[in-house]
Design goal:
161 residues, alpha+beta, 5-stranded antiparallel beta sheet, two-stranded antiparallel sheet
Length: 161
C-alpha cells in the first residue's frame, strides 16, 4: 500500500470509524431500527443518475431467521436534502421516522461490521477478508501496522468471533 493510499484511508476512516455516514436509531419497537446514510462525495453518478445510498437493519442483521438488512438508494439524500443535519441525540426533522441520530460506536457490533464493509466498497477502500466470524463467515480486517491503515479494533473482532 502506498503512502498516498494510507493517507486516503486515514482521511476516510479516522480511527477506524467511517467519516462520511450518519446513523439513525428509530427505537426498539421498529423492526428496521437502525438506518445508516452514506454521505460525502463518493462515486454515485452525476445529474439524473445521481443516487444516495442507505442501509436499514435491526440489531442482528446477519441472523438467518430474524435478521434484517436492506440496502436502498434515493435520488435525494433521505435525512437532510436541504442542508445541515441534526446533531447526535436529536430527532431527524426532515424524516422523523428515522428517529434519533446516534454515533457509529452506538451501533451493535454486527451492524458496525456491515457498515464498514459497505463503506469500504462504496469508497473503493481495499480490505482483506479472513475467516472466523460466526455471523457471516468472515471478518473484515486490514491491519498492516501502518499509520492511517484501516482496521476493525481487536475487541470488536473478538466480540464477533
Amino acid at each position: 500500500m502506498t503512502k498516498r493510499q494510507r493517507e486516503r484511508i486515514g482521511r476516510l476512516l479516522p480511527g477506524g470509524i467511517p467519516k462520511h455516514i450518519r446513523v439513525w436509531d428509530s427505537g426498539p419497537e421498529e423492526n428496521d431500527r437502525y438506518t445508516v446514510v452514506f454521505c460525502g462525495r463518493y462515486p454515485k453518478g452525476t445529474g439524473y443518475n445521481r443516487s444516495y445510498q442507505y442501509l436499514g437493519m435491526n440489531s442482528q442483521p446477519f441472523h438467518p431467521s430474524y435478521g434484517i438488512c436492506q440496502h436502498g438508494e434515493s435520488r435525494d439524500i433521505i435525512d437532510c436534502p436541504y442542508g445541515w443535519t441534526e446533531a447526535i441525540g436529536r430527532v431527524c426533522r426532515h424524516n422523523p421516522s428515522l428517529g434519533r441520530r446516534i454515533a457509529f460506536s452506538d451501533l451493535p457490533a454486527p451492524c458496525q461490521q456491515i457498515v464498514l464493509n459497505d463503506y469500504c466498497d462504496i469508497w473503493g477502500i481495499p480490505h482483506t477478508v479472513g475467516s472466523g466470524n460466526s455471523f457471516t463467515g468472515y471478518t473484515v480486517t486490514v491491519d498492516d501496522g501502518t499509520p492511517g491503515g484501516f482496521m476493525l479494533p481487536a475487541e470488536k473482532v473478538a466480540e464477533l468471533a
